[in-house]
């Protein structure tokens, strides 16, 4: 048997009814509340509250708030009027049963309508999404077809242009051949005229011989016509063999594409380097050909430096210096490695050697000279030789006065020198 919740309070206005139902100690959720336009029910087994309302309410806009052990209902009336009581008074059992069943039936119909409405809405959303997708696909297909059409028109134009160029080229060749043929015909005609002019004034003996020959032959045969027939076609060319000698080259490029002066200078330097190392570097015989190239070794050292393998980079630069000790970048890069390894005296030596080789000072080697001064100045400062370090930084500033980083470092060194002087 259910336990009826009879304790409740209510008040009203012309448009709304406010009902508070205490449910202390009970756990209430919205699923425990059932409301229609004439029926209100709160079921928290085994507790039950039921009310057949005095007049219809707007159950769609009515609300129920749960909190602090109270359910507070705000029920909006369908017609503005003052109720005599909250529930329907003097109602028999059959009417109350009918109102309950009618309320449940209406709730089922409302739930069914809401389900159908959600289903229709979902179908409309699917239809809209499908139409939007179809429009996007249609637009994309049209864009692709437009691109294809443009490419087809472009290719067609290029093909027509190529055909026109081919026709013009064929026409030009045909005109050229006709001109050459015309020249050959004219030359043959001139030779005929020259032959006729030579034979038009013969001597007396020749004229008698010609007359006798003419009398002894039938028709209009003459030796002039026979000679002319023989000379109409030129004699075939004699066959011969042409020998072609190719210039032997070290570089893979063709001679017409090469820069001979630069290549000869590079070959000369390579030969000098090989002669230099052949005497005292017999242990390098096992190396590959590219490993004997200082430039290849320099690039290898740069890659090692970039990966943080400073010892391997120093070894690569050492071998490159043994192969060619006239490249200032080898000393400059090796100085950077020594700075990372805290070999400060070696960094100073390599920077000084790089500055010796970077002569004369020109615009092309400005960046290299700046790096040499900065690296040597950094090594001096790390050895606490701030005066020498400041001199190198000032020399770098003279080359590039707009370099803010070098200027800031030089200013810091000046402050260090001033602080050291004050302390002493």
From TrEMBL:
- Enumerate the residue ranges of region (Disordered): 165-211
> In which residue ranges is the amino acid composition biased (Basic and acidic residues)?
165-197
Q: Which UniProt keywords apply?
A: Cell projection, Cytoplasm, Neurogenesis, Nucleus, Repeat, TPR repeat
Q: Which SUPFAM superfamilies match?
A: HSP20-like chaperones (SSF49764), TPR-like (SSF48452)
**Primary location class:** other
Question: For this UniProt entry, what's an example GO CC term?
Answer: extracellular region
UniProt entry tagged with the keyword Cell inner membrane: no
Q: Which Pfam families match?
A: CS (PF04969), TPR_8 (PF13181)
Q: Residue limits of the CS domain?
A: 3-87
* A biological process term (GO) from this entry: determination of left/right symmetry
Protein name per the record: Dynein axonemal assembly factor 4
């Amino acid at each position: 048997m259910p336990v009826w919740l009879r304790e409740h309070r209510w008040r009203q206005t012309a448009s709304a009814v406010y009902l508070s139902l205490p449910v202390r100690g009970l756990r209430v959720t919205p699923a425990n509340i059932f409301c229609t336009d004439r029926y209100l029910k709160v079921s928290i087994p085994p507790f039950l509250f039921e009310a057949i309302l005095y007049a219809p309410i707007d159950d769609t806009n009515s609300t129920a708030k749960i909190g602090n052990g109270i359910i507070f209902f705000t029920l909006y009336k369908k017609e503005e009027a003052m109720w005599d009581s909250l529930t329907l008074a003097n109602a028999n059992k059959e009417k109350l049963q009918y109102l309950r069943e009618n309320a449940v039936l209406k709730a089922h119909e409302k739930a069914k309508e809401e389900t159908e409405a959600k289903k229709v809405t979902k179908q409309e959303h699917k239809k809209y999404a499908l139409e939007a997708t179809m429009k996007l696909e249609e637009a994309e297909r049209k864009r692709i077809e437009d691109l294809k059409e443009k490419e087809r028109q472009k290719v067609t134009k290029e093909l027509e242009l190529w055909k026109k160029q081919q026709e013009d080229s064929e026409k030009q060749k045909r005109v050229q051949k006709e001109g050459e043929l015309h020249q050959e015909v004219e030359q043959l005609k001139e030779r005929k005229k020259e032959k006729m002019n030579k034979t038009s004034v013969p001597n007396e003996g020749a004229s008698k011989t010609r007359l006798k020959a003419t009398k002894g032959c039938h028709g209009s045969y003459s030796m002039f016509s026979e000679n002319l027939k023989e000379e109409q076609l030129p004699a075939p060319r004699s066959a011969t063999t042409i020998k072609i000698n190719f210039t032997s080259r070290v570089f893979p490029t063709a001679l017409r594409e090469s820069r001979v002066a630069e290549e000869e200078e590079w070959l000369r330097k390579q030969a000098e380097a090989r002669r230099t190392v052949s005497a005292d570097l017999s242990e390098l015989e096992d190396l590959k050909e590219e490993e004997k190239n200082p430039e290849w070794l320099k690039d290898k050292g740069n890659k090692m430096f970039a990966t943080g393998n400073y010892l391997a980079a120093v070894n690569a630069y050492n071998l490159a210096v043994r192969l060619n000790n006239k490249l200032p970048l080898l000393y400059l890069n090796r100085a950077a490695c020594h700075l990372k390894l805290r070999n400060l005296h070696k960094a100073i030596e390599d920077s000084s050697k790089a500055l010796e080789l970077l002569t004369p000072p020109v615009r092309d080697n400005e960046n290299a000279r700046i790096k040499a001064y900065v690296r040597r100045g950094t090594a001096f400062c790390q050895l606490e030789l701030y005066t020498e370090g400041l001199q190198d930084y000032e020399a770098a500033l003279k080359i590039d006065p707009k370099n803010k980083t070098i200027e800031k470092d030089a200013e810091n060194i000046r402050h260090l020198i001033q602080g050291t002087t004050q302390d002493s």
